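Continuing from the previous page...

OK, I double-checked the sequence for Fis family transcriptional regulator against my notes and this is the correct one:
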Amino acid sequence: MNKTIKKLDDNVVKALTLVCEDAKSWAPGFLWLTHTASYDRFPGSLVVTCVFATQIQLQAAFDDELDKRLRREVQGRLLRAGIRLKDIRRNVRLDSEEACQAQDDGNWQKRLQRFAG
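Thanks. Re-ran it with the corrected sequence; updated structure tokens here:
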């Protein structure tokens, strides 16, 4: 990772860390988030995965439109870091620990690769 890409990734991490810590206080069942990106196709390749504990909590997040709030928060924080996304719906997805366990034996690396941008 060259210096420019490292700095860009650091800015992404800082922005997403703020979103993560905030979301824990207002999104029931939200546990953590992570991102993947191919920096030669950035920012279009950026995929942020927001993880809830269970499928029920994940569905409740959709029902309460917390998915929209998470997307707005991610978009706003990244924009403040100088990163503009064209279509936030493509860049942010929601998932659950329960689904990863059931479908990928808890292997998040394998699961994230399937959804990489």
